[in-house]
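agent> Task received from the user: take the single chain below, predict its 3D structure, and emit structure tokens. No templates, no multimer pairing.
agent> Plan: (1) validate residues, (2) run structure prediction, (3) serialize to tokens, (4) report one or two observations.
agent> Step 1 OK, no nonstandard residues flagged.
tool_call: predict_structure(input=
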Amino acid sequence: MAEIRLGDRPIGAGHAPFIIAEMSGNHNQSLETALRIVEAAAASGAHALKLQTYTADLMTLPLSEGDFYIGDADSLWRGESLYALYEKAHTPWEWHAPIFERCRALGLIPFSTPFHPKAVDFLESLDVPFYKIASFENNDLPLIRRVAATGKPLIVSTGMATISDLEETVTTAREAGCRDLILLKCTSDYPASPADSHLHTIPHLRDLFGCEVGLSDHTQGIGAAVASVALGATVIEKHFTLSRADGGVDAAFSLEPDELRSLVIETERAWQSLGSVHYGLSDKERQSLKFRRSLYISRDVAPGEMLSEDNVRIIRPGYGLAPKHLDLFLGKALSKGARAGTPLSWDLL
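)
tool_result: status=success, residues=349
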């Protein structure tokens, strides 16, 4: 695969995972809070901050009954209408420019998920470097065509999509001009259970579609995200908030600043630990050889005395002969005496 760059950062197995902090609606309709989230994400070491660009009118109809009412008893948003939820969660478009400006000043890459072609046009005016398609929109082929036509890298979450759905999505994006594609394994449940994450899908997605693959993670904590790195995830997206206690539409499955910092650190450690297939002594292990077990005289032995398990032991450190040679010495007489603590060597026989 050709190397993809998101902003100024290369993406792939040869690089530490790219970490995205998703603000979503956790600003609670306060620009001041939104800018503090940006600052906290930057201080935590995230590489990018993602917004969602829509209005309630572009998302749904202003109805509060029937199909437009959330009545699911297990939903975080039970009792809301879709329209009211999107009114509460959306990021005002006039906030995008100051949020992007603050991101860039702090070294974060700002980008967004558009939910309508009008949002794409707006984000293009802000020079967004790449785009994200949300799981709920991965079947919106006209939107995908519009985003792909910008020629910019495209990240697509795969929640709810079958293989045939994804084939259609990927083909549509590539035919419309997308050359740099990243798929994110995603479970569209809020919060999601680790048991429903099915991370083994990550390498399968890469093989099927020949692209970089990552994780859009809605589980609580960082365990699933760290595990995904071992399976080849090169991009990880997590929702982010200043404090879950502040509430907000996504707070229940969002990371706090200390947790985001841990995610950045631990996913990079996981990536570093993968290495390559390797057996035997590494350069760093040479100094530890002395702590292996070896054969030592364990009590003073007179010249001509027979060696036995009473005067030879397998112990640390490792300066004597290897333990596998013990049977060759037992029952043999020493040609000269040896004091306790003498490493066993061939010239003692």
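agent> Step 4: summary for the user.
Residues 283-348 form a domain with the Type Iii Antifreeze Protein Isoform Hplc 12 fold (CATH 3.90.1210.10).
agent> Done.
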